[in-house]
């Protein structure tokens, strides 16, 4: 069975943030919105493949220290992960070591996040063409 391919799986816990992101990004790309990282992991176990996974609650995933990025990379090895993180240098290094392609810092600049996601989608498309 061939899996469906979607552009972005977006986990934003804040309703206003989701609305703003979809205004900036949602008209040009297919976006599935979930409430949290746990729901994102559940979705990734399904039949749809995503090119980019964006997570805003990476620091609050249970259990503490859980490697959410690693779990996503296992479930969706072709997907690139972009966590939205606090602007702490240790956190930035940690998410990169876990395998994040890029990251966005809180508070989120939705234009910047949209640009980062578009860049990732371009790279994913180039990989698929090879």
Poorly predicted regions are: none
> Can you count the helices?
5
First CA to last CA: what distance? Answer: 22 Å
| Helix share, percent | 40-55%
Count the strands?
5
Can you give the mean pLDDT?
81
Q: What percent strand?
A: 15-25%
Q: Largest sheet at a glance?
A: 5 strands, parallel
- Using the alpha-carbon principal axes, give the shape: globular
Structure description:
- This protein is of the alpha/beta class.
- It is built from 5 helices and 5 strands; from the N terminus they run E-H-E-H-E-H-E-H-E-H.
- Strand 3 (48-55), helix 3 (68-75) and strand 4 (80-85) form a beta-alpha-beta unit.
- Helix 1 (15-26) crosses helix 5 (110-129).
- The longest helix is centred in the C-terminal third of the chain and has 20 residues, at 110-129.
- It is globular and about 35 Å long.
Concise description?
This protein is an alpha/beta fold and 130 residues long.
Q: Could you list some keywords that capture this structure?
A:
alpha/beta, 5 helices, 130 residues, 45% helix
Write the layout of secondary structure elements.
Blueprint: E1 4-11, H1 15-26, E2 31-34, H2 37-44, E3 48-55, H3 68-75, E4 80-85, H4 89-98, E5 104-105, H5 110-129
Helix pairs in contact: 1-5
